[in-house]
Specification:
Blueprint (H helix, E strand, L loop, with lengths): L11 H20 L16 H20 L23 H21 L22 H27 L5
Length: 165
């Protein structure tokens, strides 16, 4: 179990990177031990494994495609034909894909020069769109995790009554 970054931490880059890793861990903790992560427990039909797959593609899309400008086949691969998250792969396979994307994102952030560096114009930020900074990108991804951790709180409570972290 990973702890939140230290309350003494003042460097924004370290703070953002630390919280990203913290929330990546939070997501996996909520899924570990979840009975049947491939089963939906909500009216919209999304499954916890599909949410994890969405987060893996979200990492890849924001850091590798948008920020670093890497060529990515199918950057939106997490959406099914109706625009909803979908996953036909087993949880362990999606978990491994998620972990690989997180590591790839960490490398992109580590190789970036400064929080003020702008994203590439390869992905969604082709002119005339204004590319975001690395700081904005990291914060955006962080809020995605915080939001979806709450969704998993609900799914976990519905599945087995577990609450909290």
């Amino acid at each position: 179990m990973m702890d939140e970054p230290s309350k003494d931490l003042a460097d924004p880059r370290e703070l953002l990177a630390g919280y990203l890793d913290y929330y990546r861990d939070v997501i996996l903790r909520k899924l570990d031990g979840l009975p049947d992560p491939e089963v939906s427990r909500v009216p919209s039909g999304w499954t916890p494994v599909a949410l994890l797959k969405h987060l893996a593609y979200m990492e890849r899309r924001w850091f590798c495609w948008d920020f670093a400008g890497q060529e990515i086949d199918d950057p939106y691969g997490d959406d099914g034909p109706d625009g909803r998250w979908s996953a036909t792969e087993p949880y362990d396979e999606v978990r491994a894909f998620f972990l690989a994307q997180c590591e790839r994102s960490r490398r992109v952030v580590a190789e970036a020069g400064d929080l003020a560096d702008l994203a590439s114009t390869i992905g969604r930020f082709q002119p005339p769109r204004t590319p975001p900074t690395l700081a904005w990108t990291m914060f955006h991804v962080l809020q995605e995790y915080a939001r979806h951790a709450g969704h998993l709180d609900i799914a976990r409570e519905l599945a087995d009554g577990a609450t909290g972290e």
